[in-house]
Amino acid sequence: MLKQNNTAYKIYEQGIYLAKNYNTISYEIDLYRSMVEYYKEIGDYGKSLEYSRLVLDQVTLYNATEKSTELKLIEKQLNEEENLLLLHKKERDFYIMIAILVLLLIGVYYLVLVFKRRKRAVKQIEKQNSQMQLDIKQLQDKLKGIDIKSYSRLSERQKQIVDLVQKGKTNKEIGETLFISENTVKYHLKIIYEILQIKGKADLLK
Fold it and tell me: Fewer CB atoms inside 10 Å of the end CB: C or N, the chain?
């Protein structure tokens, strides 16, 4: 009987050593339970009670370890979710920054286009103003010595004839240009001289 007890205890000690060495609490609890049953069978209730207490202590420790492991797993999951959320936030912020940058570039491009169009429009207006001033000067040069009020009384046809006379055209050439007869040109010139109160073509050429 004693030999049998020693053999069981040695097996138990080896098992406990392995359980502790590999940190397997569940296996350690099973060994303690086996010893409880073993001592019950041989009638050693003191030892059985002693191992029952060990079972209770290890179960409590095992549950605490399990809870701790669960908490660690939950904490790990929460950390992973938080990291994922942070990653998504960074990605969202990055795309928002890209969108803002694109909008700014579009805005700058639009402003450059508007500026160029305005610059071209200003140049065109300046060119038109220069041309207008040149036309006015040429007209003033043509009308030197002619009363402006009297000139304004001329018809469009008569003004055309005055313009052609000032360009050095003959009566025949004026008629061909305006598709009228030379006599009609002479008739218009007579009326022009009367309206402008001048003597002849020489006054138109001054």
Answer: N
